[in-house]
Specification:
The chain has helices at about 5-25, 40-45, 65-75, 95-100, 120-130, 150-160, and strands spanning about 30-35, 50, 55-60, 85, 110, 135-145, 165-170, 185-190, 195-205, 215-220, 225-235. The protein is of the alpha/beta class.
Length: about 240
């Protein structure tokens, strides 16, 4: 065996060893972080959002309510060192919303992938997976109209080793698709006579850590983006 071949073989062995160590490394311990909204925390298994999880926020109507709730839930997770990565492929995220939910602008990493006309949302998915693997990122926020079970499974594997939490904002059309997320929540707007506020019903549709968990929480969202707990009806 020549010296070049021996060096190449040694490099290949070292690379395989590195991949094996990464594949067999134990997952980070999960910790649950309350959202600070009593009605919502009473609905969620463990009383909050777990680190190292994938959470789907579904909404029947367009608007900022689901995004605002995801930001509010992210604030608790950011009690740890690290940042919130926002995958904004539509360039529509308004960063000034974050401080309204106790997230400093200095903790936000804004990622705006270029449009990919050949592969649809390929660039955004790549950015989402890469940030989800980073242990310096505590929360990833992204909007996804279409999401296959294979994509969610890759995200699960990523967050299990990084400890990051992925918040996916999705339309209600995703209800027709199976979910492999750790949490799936449906946000619905209820009628109210007040002009400067709205009532939100949050339904727990799926919880991987509590398969029989179900129930609803009702919150009041004011024009200032502030949330107030109204009622909780959780059962397990």
């Amino acid at each position: 065996m020549t010296a070049v071949a021996a060096t190449t073989r040694l490099q290949a062995i070292q690379q395989l060893r590195g991949q094996l160590r990464a594949a067999t490394a134990p997952a980070l311990a999960r910790h649950v972080f309350p959202t600070g909204l009593a009605a919502l925390d009473a609905l969620l298994p463990g009383g909050g959002i777990a680190s190292g999880s994938v959470v789907e926020w579904l909404s029947r109507t367009p608007g900022q309510s689901a995004t605002s709730l995801a930001l509010r839930a992210s604030a608790g997770l950011l009690s740890q060192p690290g940042c919130l990565a926002v995958i904004d492929d539509s360039h529509s995220f308004f960063p000034a919303m974050a401080p309204l939910h106790n997230i400093p602008l200095s903790r936000i990493l804004l990622v705006q992938p270029p449009p990919d006309t050949r592969n649809g949302a390929g660039q955004a998915l790549w950015a989402l997976e890469q940030t989800a693997r980073s242990r310096g990122v505590k929360v990833v926020l992204a909007w996804m109209n279409r999401c296959t079970s294979a994509v969610v499974r890759r995200l699960q594997l990523a967050v299990e080793h990084s400890g990051s939490t992925v918040m996916l904002i999705r339309p209600a059309a995703a209800l027709r698709q199976p979910s492999f997320a750790d949490l799936r929540l449906l946000v619905e707007t209820a009628a109210t006579a007040a002009v400067d506020q709205r009532l939100l019903n949050i339904r727990l549709l799926r919880a991987r850590q509590g398969l029989l968990s179900e129930g609803t929480a009702q919150l009041r969202q004011e024009s200032s983006e502030r949330f107030v707990s109204v009622t909780a009806n959780a059962a397990s």
